Amino acid sequence: MRVTESMRLANHQRYLNEIAGKLDDTQRQLASGRKIERASDDPTAAAVALHYRRDIAYEAQMRRNIESGIAFMNVTEAALEGATETLQRIRELTVQASNDTLSPAERQTIAREVDQLIRHLAQIANTQFGDAYIFSGTATDTPAYSITGDPPTAITYQGDSGLRVRQISREAQVPVNLVGSQVFGTTFDDLIALRDALASGALGPAIEPSLSAIDASLDRVLSARAELGARINRFEAALQQSETTDLNLQQLRSDVEDVDLAQAIVRLSSEEVALQAALGAIGRASSLTLLDYLR
Fold first, then answer.
1. Cα–Cα distances in Å, from 139 out to 159, 161, 231?
2. Residue spans of alpha helices (H) in 33-144
3. Is this model's pTM higher than 0.90 or not?
């Protein structure tokens, strides 16, 4: 088959288009930093990258859940620390009041301080995280405890026993809240009875049983703090694991999607040289005359 000049030019044009297309792709990749901009660039790699991106988004949501849960539990821990200090102070006052040498006025003074501490403890029990009452179970719009009377004659739990859970991995859901009725139990009834006994001038034998009730309250709060601390540790471990998983997924996604800049720059230089060489060759071929072909 005879190769005509038009066929030769068409071949040159196809070659130029091929080199120019590769050069354009490389320039575009360098500008965007990505090897895949459209699924049609590499359907298989695009599907793999999409899978990694979904996993990355899932891990990001897990970290938001975990961080929110840790913040909630940190507020709860601070409240329980305050409850512990308040109960310890009430215990100290109760030990003082068990001494029969105290005057009626001194007992009244202790009763007034106990009353203030009861109010403070009720305030702690109604602690909020944002707009949510932390000890109300899932009834977070409702204060955990209602207070009747001034001074209080009853402090009553009005939340529920529901648990607020956070998804911290594909498999694990963990509660972040502690239910007030379990944490405080009969504490408020016991303390109100203690205050009233002190105010009425009760002596040591009538006061001493309150120490056992206060110790039971302290045990409940300390047990709740231990449970909460274990949960916080678990959340922090899950957060660290999620961060590690995210780094791995980001690397895998980058291997599929992102351009190796060093390789791309070398390829760009090579393609530019090839394009210039092709243009020179075509230019020389197009300048040949009939006499050049007859020689």
1. 6, 9, 21
2. 43-97, 104-125
3. no
Tell whether the torsion through CA atoms of 180, 114, 153 and 130 is positive or negative.
negative
- Strands, E assignment, the chain: 128-129, 132-133, 145-148, 154-157, 165-167, 173-175
Residue 132, classed as helix, strand or coil, is strand
Burial 136-163 (b: 16+ CB within 10 A, else e): bbbebeebbbebeeeebeebebebeeee
Q: Dmax of the chain from CA atoms? A: 135
Look up residue 192 and give its two tokens: 């109100």
Is residue 118 within 8 Å of 125, Cβ to Cβ? Answer: no
Instruction: Write the pLDDT tens digit of every residue in 227-283.
Output: 999 999 999 999 999 999 999 998 888 777 766 545 656 565 665 555 566 566 566
* 8 A C-beta contact, residue 192 and residue 118: yes
Note whether 188 and 145 are within 8 A (CB). Answer: yes
Q: Which amino acid is at 39?
A: A
In DSSP terms, 146 is beta-bridged to 156
Mean pLDDT value of segment 206-222: 94
Whole-angstrom Cα distance, residue 42 to residue 35?
9
Full set of structural domains in the chain with CATH: 51-222 (1.20.1330.10)
Tokens in use for 162? 């529901």
The helix, strand and coil proportions of the chain, stated in percent and rounded to the nearest 5, come to 70, 5, 20
